[in-house]
Design a protein that fits this description.
Strand content: over 45%
Number of strands: 17
Number of domains: 1
CATH architecture: 7 Propeller
CATH superfamily: Peptidase/esterase 'gauge' domain
Number of helices: 0
Shape: globular
Largest sheet: 5 strands, antiparallel
Order of helices and strands: EEEEEEEEEEEEEEEEE
CATH class: Mainly Beta
Distance between the termini: 28 Å
Structural class: mainly beta
Length: 137
C-alpha cells in the first residue's frame, strides 16, 4: 500500500508503512505501482523543479513532468514519462532523456505489449509518431 502524506510543510510517500524522502510536493495523480506490484513511481517537486521518483530514487530534474506522469512497461522493468526542460519537451525512458521536440502529446508515452515505447510528438508544426525500441539490460 502507498499513499501521499504531509508533515511540517513537506510531502512524502508512505510505502508499506515506511516514510519516503521529503519533497516540496508530490504531484497529484502520479503515484503508481508496476503491473507486478513490486515497484512504485511518482512525480515530485523540490526547489521549483519536478522529477520522477522510482523505487525511492529521484531521477533527473525537469521544469515539468507531463501528464499522466510515469508509466511502467507491462513487465514492470521499465519506466517512461514525458517532461519539459528549457522550453523543449522529451520522453525520459529508464532515466535517459530522449530527443527534444516542440511538444509531446498529452497521454504519451505508452508501452506496447512487444516492449516498444510509442508517443506522439510535435516538431516544426508536424505531428510525429515516435516508436522507440528499448535496449535490453
Amino acid at each position: 500500500m502507498a499513499y501521499g502524506a504531509q508533515k511540517g510543510g513537506k510531502q512524502f510517500v508512505v510505502l508499506d508503512g515506511q516514510e519516503g524522502p521529503e519533497y516540496d510536493g508530490i504531484l497529484e495523480g502520479t503515484l503508481i505501482f508496476s503491473p507486478d506490484g513490486k515497484r512504485v513511481a511518482y512525480g515530485a517537486q523540490k526547489g521549483g523543479k519536478q522529477f520522477v521518483v522510482i523505487d525511492g530514487q529521484a531521477g533527473p530534474e525537469d521544469d515539468l513532468i507531463g501528464e499522466p506522469g510515469p508509466v511502467f512497461s507491462p513487465d514492470g522493468k521499465r519506466v517512461a514519462y514525458g517532461a519539459k526542460s528549457d522550453a523543449k519537451q522529451l520522453v525520459v525512458l529508464d532515466g535517459q532523456a530522449g530527443p527534444e521536440y516542440d511538444g509531446i502529446v498529452k497521454g504519451s508515452p505508452v508501452f506496447r505489449p512487444e516492449g516498444t515505447v510509442e508517443y506522439l510528438a510535435e516538431k516544426a508544426g508536424t505531428r510525429l509518431r515516435v516508436k522507440h525500441v528499448p535496449v535490453e539490460r
